User: Which sequence fits this backbone?
């Protein structure tokens, strides 16, 4: 096994750039995007780490709607993709909402806590600019895939501590919730992230001594940090090595007194909801139903 403690940050940046070249994104034909019409604007939202590229999508800008803020996956080292655009378009056309899709700063160029602080500041900005966005501030929802699900947990913990805002509810999909435990010690998943790559991703994101921080590994957050979370939907994939830690986090949320819906998709692999894999459509329908039902409850 390579001694990762001897890799410099400069070497990590070069290695991550090569990884991004090798790990290709799913191809999303333009006709598939066009099936879910939406206007997409690129905004530059001010944050403490600099302007954030945020994609604002909608069908009718003037109509006040709920807002879904989406945080993409990619092991903290890969950017927003056309698959994220498609996911947001499908949400807009299924829920009559608007979306903000954050193309947050990537590790290892920007290690923890850059992406967390950037995403937190974008969410706070959305709450403070509801009139400009044409959205209902009490109906702001966070969705996150993989690394994005991890960031949602950190955002919510920080929001609870600060009192700045609180999402109406959150959707977390196949999240890495324990960056401290070595990937070889986790259950093997035939459709998960290979251990060697996962180990590198974790180190790209933060130093080994930081990996047990509850904002890096939310599985270590105690009940005093998790109590008072919004309603949550947690989705896991049976063949993903991250399945157990995602489910343990959902259990921790429930034990802290929160309302949690947990669904494991049998036979599914990591990234299945975003990359058109088996179980993805069923999971998307569950997400839409969860959001619709909870919005209806708010509006009663």
Assistant:
């Amino acid at each position: 096994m390579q001694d990762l403690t001897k890799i410099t940050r400069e070497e990590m940046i070069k290695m991550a750039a090569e990884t991004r070249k090798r790990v290709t994104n799913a191809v999303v034909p333009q006709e598939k995007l066009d099936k879910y019409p939406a206007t997409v604007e690129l905004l530059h939202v001010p944050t403490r780490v600099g302007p954030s590229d945020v994609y604002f999508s909608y069908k009718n800008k003037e109509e006040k709607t709920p807002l879904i803020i989406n945080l993409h996956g990619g092991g903290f080292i890969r950017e927003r993709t056309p698959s994220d655009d498609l996911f947001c378009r499908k949400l807009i056309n299924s829920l009559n909402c608007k979306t903000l899709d954050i193309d947050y700063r990537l590790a290892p160029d920007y290690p923890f806590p850059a992406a967390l602080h950037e995403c937190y500041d974008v969410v706070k900005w959305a709450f403070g600019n509801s009139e400009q966005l044409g959205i209902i501030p009490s109906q702001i929802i966070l969705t996150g895939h993989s690394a994005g699900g991890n960031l949602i947990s950190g955002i919510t913990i920080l929001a609870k501590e600060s009192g700045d805002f609180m999402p109406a509810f959150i959707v977390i999909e196949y999240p890495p919730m324990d960056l401290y435990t070595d990937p070889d010690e986790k259950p093997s998943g035939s459709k998960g992230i290979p251990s060697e790559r996962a180990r590198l991703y974790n180190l790209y994101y933060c130093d080994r001594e930081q990996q047990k921080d509850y904002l890096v590994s939310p599985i270590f957050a105690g009940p005093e940090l998790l109590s008072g979370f919004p309603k949550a939907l947690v989705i896991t994939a049976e063949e993903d090595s991250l399945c157990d830690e995602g489910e343990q986090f959902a259990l921790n949320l429930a034990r802290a007194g929160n309302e949690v819906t947990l669904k494991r998709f049998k036979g599914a692999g990591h990234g299945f909801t975003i990359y058109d894999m088996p179980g993805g459509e069923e999971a998307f329908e569950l997400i839409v139903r969860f959001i619709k039902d909870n919005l209806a409850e708010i509006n009663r």
